[in-house]
C-alpha cells in the first residue's frame, strides 16, 4: 500500500515532527510511505519536496497578503489564521497519482489551497486528514479559543480587525463547505478533545472521525543519567529543575506568564528554598523571557535536534505545561517517555495525557498559585520515582510508534 503524507514542512513545528515520525513508523510497519512537503531540510530520500521554488514562495506571500489586507495591513494575528486561497495542485505529482491513500496533515501557509483539496477529492483519491489544530473545522483560525462561530458558519471573526457577518472567516467557511462539507473523509484527531470538537463541526458531518495520538520513538526517548545530561547542557547538578519548552518562549498562548506567576508564588511561600530550584527555558526568545523571572533561570536556544531535546528531558525534574490551548503536545509525550512527570492546565488534550496524581498533576486553567503548589510537590515528594515510572509506562502504552502505525494502517484499510 502506497501512502503519501502531505505537510507544509518536514521538520519545523509540532505537526511536521509528528508527520515525519508517523511516516517512519509506517515504513517500519511495512507500508510504502512517503512524505510530500514544501520545505524540505534533510537528505531523507523518503521526503519529497514540491518543485518550483519560485511558485511556492509566491503562494506563501500571496496567501499571507490576503490575511494582511483583511487585518488592515497590520501584523496582528498574521499567523494565527489561514485562508488556503493559494496553493499547489499536488495531483500533478507522480507519487500522489500513484498513491493508494493521500494523508493530509498541516497544509497551510500556501502549501495547498482549498481548490487543490477539491481537485484531490474530485479525482476520487482516498483521503485521510489528521487534525493538528482546529483549522479544518473553522473558517480561518487554527485555535478558536472561546469563539463558537465555527459551530454555525463563522463570520464576525474576533481574529480580524473589522469583524463582519460576511467577513473573510465566513467567506472561507463557505468555500470549505463547498469543498469538503459533504465529502466522506477519514478524519483523525491527535486527541480525544479535538475528536469531540470534530464530531460537532458542521464542516465534517459527512466524515468519519477517529482519535489516534502522535507517535514517538520510546526507545530513543527513554530515561537516562540526569547527571550526564546536566553536564552536557551546562546545567547545575545541585538544583531541582523545572523545564518549559515552546517554539517561542514569550508566546503567551503557551502560558509563560503563568509560569512566572508560579515562580513568584513559590518564592513567597518558601523564600528559604529559593536557591534549591531553578527554571530551564528552551525555545526562541528564551533569554528575553528569562529576565522576567525572580529565580535562577537557564535559557536554552531553540532546539531542533531530538538528541538535545532528550538531554533536556533527562536533565529536568518536572515539565511545566501551562499552555492555554493545545491538542496533544509532542513535548509531554517525549518527556513522559524519558520518565519526566508533567504539571499543566486542564485544557485541550492534556487530561488525556496527564493522569492526575499518577504521572503528574492537572491544574485549573490560569491558576498560577495551584500551578506553583503542584510543581513544588513534584520537586519535593518522596514518591517521585513512582511518578517517573508511571510517566514512562504511559508513554510506552499509548504513544509507541508501532502501536500508532497499526492504528493508522487499520484506518487506511477501511473502505
Automatic annotation (TrEMBL):
Residues 12-219 form the Glycosyltransferase subfamily 4-like N-terminal domain. InterPro entries: Glyco_trans_4-like_N. Transmembrane segments: none annotated. SUPFAM superfamilies: UDP-Glycosyltransferase/glycogen phosphorylase (SSF53756). GO terms for molecular function: glycosyltransferase activity. This is Glycosyltransferase. It comes from Alloprevotella tannerae.
Amino acid at each position: 500500500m502506497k501512502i503519501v503524507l502531505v505537510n507544509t514542512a518536514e521538520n519545523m513545528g509540532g505537526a511536521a515532527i509528528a508527520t515525519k515520525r508517523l511516516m517512519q513508523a509506517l515504513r517500519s510497519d511495512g507500508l510504502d510511505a512517503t512524505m510530500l512537503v514544501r520545505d524540505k531540510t534533510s537528505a531523507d530520500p523518503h521526503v519529497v519536496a514540491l518543485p518550483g521554488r519560485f511558485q511556492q514562495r509566491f503562494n506563501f506571500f500571496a496567501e499571507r497578503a490576503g490575511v494582511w489586507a483583511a487585518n488592515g495591513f497590520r501584523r496582528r494575528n498574521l499567523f494565527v489564521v489561514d485562508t488556503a486561497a493559494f496553493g499547489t495542485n499536488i495531483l500533478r505529482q507522480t507519487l500522489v497519482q500513484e498513491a493508494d491513500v493521500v494523508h493530509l496533515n498541516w497544509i497551510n501557509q500556501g502549501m495547498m489551497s482549498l481548490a487543490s483539496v477539491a481537485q484531490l477529492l474530485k479525482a476520487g483519491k482516498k483521503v485521510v486528514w489528521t487534525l493538528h489544530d482546529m483549522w479544518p473545522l473553522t473558517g480561518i483560525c487554527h485555535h478558536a479559543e472561546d469563539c463558537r462561530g465555527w459551530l454555525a458558519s463563522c463570520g464576525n471573526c474576533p481574529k480580524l480587525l473589522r469583524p463582519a457577518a460576511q467577513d473573510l472567516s465566513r467567506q472561507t467557511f463557505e468555500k470549505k463547505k463547498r469543498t469538503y462539507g459533504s465529502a466522506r473523509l477519514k478524519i483523525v484527531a491527535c486527541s480525544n478533545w479535538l475528536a469531540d470538537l470534530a464530531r460537532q463541526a458542521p464542516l465534517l458531518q459527512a466524515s468519519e472521525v477517529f482519535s489516534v495520538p502522535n507517535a514517538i520513538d520510546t526507545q530513543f526517548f527513554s530515561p537516562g543519567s540526569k547527571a550526564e545530561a546536566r553536564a552536557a547542557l551546562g546545567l547545575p547538578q545541585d538544583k531541582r529543575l523545572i523545564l518549559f519548552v515552546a517554539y517561542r518562549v514569550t508566546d503567551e498562548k503557551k502560558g509563560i506568564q503563568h509560569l512566572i506567576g508560579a515562580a513568584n508564588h513559590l518564592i513567597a511561600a518558601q523564600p528559604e528554598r529559593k536557591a534549591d530550584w531553578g527554571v530551564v527555558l528552551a525555545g526562541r526568545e528564551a533569554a528575553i523571557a528569562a529576565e522576567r523571572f525572580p529565580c535562577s533561570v537557564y535559557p536554552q536556544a531553540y532546539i531542533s535536534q531530538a538528541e538535545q531535546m532528550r538531554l533536556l528531558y533527562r536533565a529536568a525534574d518536572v515539565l511545566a505545561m501551562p499552555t492555554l490551548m493545545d491538542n496533544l503536545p509532542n513535548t509531554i509525550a517525549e518527556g513522559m517517555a524519558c520518565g519526566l512527570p508533567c504539571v499543566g492546565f486542564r485544557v485541550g488534550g492534556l487530561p488525556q495525557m496527564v493522569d492526575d496524581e499518577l504521572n503528574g498533576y492537572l491544574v485549573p486553567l490560569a491558576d498560577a498559585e495551584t500551578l506553583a503548589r503542584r510543581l513544588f510537590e513534584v520537586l519535593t515528594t518522596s514518591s517521585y520515582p513512582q511518578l517517573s515510572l508511571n510517566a514512562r509506562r504511559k508513554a510506552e502504552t499509548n504513544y509507541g510508534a508501532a502501536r500508532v502505525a497499526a492504528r493508522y494502517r487499520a484506518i487506511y484499510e477501511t473502505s
